[in-house]
Amino acid sequence: MQAICTGYNCSGWPAYSLLLFGWMAPFAASANMGWWANPTLMVSWVMGRNGRNSSAVALAVIALGFCLLPWLFPVVMVNEGGITGDIDGYRSGYFLWLVSAIVNLCTQFALLHLARTE
């Protein structure tokens, strides 16, 4: 599954490689900082599961913000040499990641609402 296209090449970075190796260069380009959505999402899930709903909602908002960084700053590191390139397109892997952040945010809001009504 592909996530992004750079230099009109969509086969260079499969989505799983961005997840596995994105931590290596999160500050190389602004869009690369979007990788921080992954640990932020995981911490949000754990906090929501443990009943820390306000913190989980805040982290879910931050994670969604990180997911949107590639749209705001469409330049990403394209190879191990630190070369950056423009993002030319987004594929299903990116949209699946974005939808997971949106679903997480909706879920955390629902859990917060349920906790407040009990």
- % residues in beta strands: 5-15%
Distance between the termini: 42 Å
- Give the overall shape: elongated
Percent of residues in helices comes to 55-70%
Name the strands of the widest sheet in spatial order: 1-3-2
Following the backbone from N to C, one meets helices and strands in this order, namely: EHHHEEH
The biggest beta sheet, please? 3 strands, antiparallel
Low-confidence stretches: none
Average pLDDT for all residues? 86
| Class of secondary structure makeup | mainly alpha
Beta strand count: 3
Number of helices: 4
Round the Cα radius of gyration to an integer and report it: 16 Å
How are the secondary structure elements laid out?
Elements: E1 4-6, H1 15-21, H2 37-49, H3 53-72, E2 75-77, E3 84-90, H4 92-117
Antiparallel strand pairs: 1-3, 2-3
Helix pairs in contact: 2-3, 2-4, 3-4
Question: How would you describe the overall organization of this protein?
Answer:
- The protein is mostly helical.
- It contains 4 helices and 3 strands, in the order βαααββα.
- A 3-stranded antiparallel beta sheet has the order 1-3-2, covered by helices on one side.
- β2 (75-77) and β3 form a beta hairpin.
- It is elongated.
- The mean pLDDT is 86.
List descriptors.
single chain; 118 residues; mainly alpha; 3-stranded antiparallel sheet
Quick overview:
By secondary structure, this protein is mostly helical. It is built from four helices and three strands; from the N terminus they run βαααββα.
